Amino acid sequence: MNYPRIILKKGRETPLRHGHPWVFSGAIARVEGSAAPGDVVMAADSGGRPLGLGFFNTGDIAFRLLTDDPAARIDADFWKRRIERAVMLRRKVVPPETDAYRLVNAEGDGIPGLVVDRYGGYLVFSVGTAGADRWREVLIGLCREAVGPAGIYERSEGRSRQLEGLSDRIGPVAGEIPASVEVTENGLRFEVDLMTGQKTGFFLDQRGNREMVGALGREAAVLNCFSYTGAFSVYAARGGASRVVSVEASAAANEIAGRNLVRNGISPIQHPVLTANCFEYLRETGEAFDLIILDPPAFAKSRRDVERSARGYKEINLQAARKLREGGLLATFSCSNPVDPELFEKIVLGAVRDAGKTAQFLRPLGAGPDHPVNLAHPEGRYLKGLLLCLHTG
């Protein structure tokens, strides 16, 4: 097929040749042919040699690679192969007794802008690029064909769509969507609000880290900050923690957290759920803990937010470090894309040092294998975390 072409400036093709899936607008010398946002175009180097096919847009990210095969045809069969590949991977990596996981992870599965999460018999579908929006109906149909859901709810919203020139689209796509569904993760049961819950209703990317907390929290006093609907708390309590305190500012999320504890046979009296600001709670509590989990929402939405967000991450980690007992464990996370792992590590180190402590680095933390990332695309690793053991002196 004769696709329009974007010709890159001399020397600007290297990232694409090395597998990075994005080309920024400043790298483009010219556009040959008529190309509108969402169109498939051919990228070529300054000498006209083809580099691959991808989605075009007029914003900062001007090209998103679909395939480095210039002879490929981008049609329904192409997308069917991508969806089938994504489904096959999940069959390999999703553990037994788990029916909640990410089914499609955008560039990580070769479908830029498409995120599909599975919650039992339901799918939550999010489209974030103009290119994927062009193929929306086809992609929905292929997902239905692949997994046969009882219903699909769309939550295509947020800044990524605005940058692509798209308006929000929220609502049921297929079937009847209940107010909440119960899902199973490693045999534990959780209530999920598909329509209004954070992200697509549940933090699916933290499943492996929750397992880790369950194993590390034996006989420990655990503090779960920004606890949302209490998933880390459920794992910690079921893992044998002596006491788990969940702190979350949203009263609605805390109601679900309380129900999640009960549905897993855990007492909310022994393991309290508190509605409070996590910064204030950490400053004011007189209680010390053996394990603290910090999983805040994204403090930085763009690069201009990085300096402000760094202060927030510094403060919350400083206060947590002060509330850990000698030899206590800190599992700390950032899901802010503009805050890279190196910067996050420096921020946390500064907080630990200001608390008068030293830190042993035990392991890096990130999303689970149902959230694959293109190895050449570090921007896809939005969730970064550290497991640390803190000491005084």
Describe the overall structure:
This protein has helices spanning 14-17, 76-93, 130-134, 136-147, 159-163, 207-216, 231-238, 251-263, 278-284, 306-322, 341-354, and strands spanning 5-8, 22-24, 28-32, 40-44, 50-56, 61-67, 100-105, 114-119, 122-127, 151-156, 169-174, 181-185, 188-192, 221-225, 243-248, 273-275, 289-294, 324-334, 357-366, 384-392. 29% of the residues lie in helices and 31% in strands. The chain is α/β, with parallel strands linked by helices and 393 residues long. The longest helix has 18 residues, at 76-93. The protein folds into 3 domains: 5-67, PUA domain (Archaeosine Trna-guanine Transglycosylase, Chain: A, domain 4), CATH 2.30.130.10; 76-179, RNA methyltransferase domain (HRMD) like (Transcription Regulator spoIIAA); 203-392, Rossmann fold (3-Layer(aba) Sandwich). The strands form 4 sheets. A 7-stranded mixed sheet has the order 16-15-14-17-18-20-19, with helices on both faces. A 6-stranded mixed sheet has the order 2-6-5-4-1-3. A 5-stranded mixed sheet has the order 7-8-9-10-11.
SSE layout and pairings?
Elements: E1 5-8, H1 14-17, E2 22-24, E3 28-32, E4 40-44, E5 50-56, E6 61-67, H2 76-93, E7 100-105, E8 114-119, E9 122-127, H3 130-134, H4 136-147, E10 151-156, H5 159-163, E11 169-174, E12 181-185, E13 188-192, H6 207-216, E14 221-225, H7 231-238, E15 243-248, H8 251-263, E16 273-275, H9 278-284, E17 289-294, H10 306-322, E18 324-334, H11 341-354, E19 357-366, E20 384-392
Parallel strand pairs: 1-4, 9-10, 14-15, 14-17, 15-16, 17-18
Antiparallel strand pairs: 1-3, 2-6, 4-5, 5-6, 7-8, 8-9, 10-11, 12-13, 18-20, 19-20
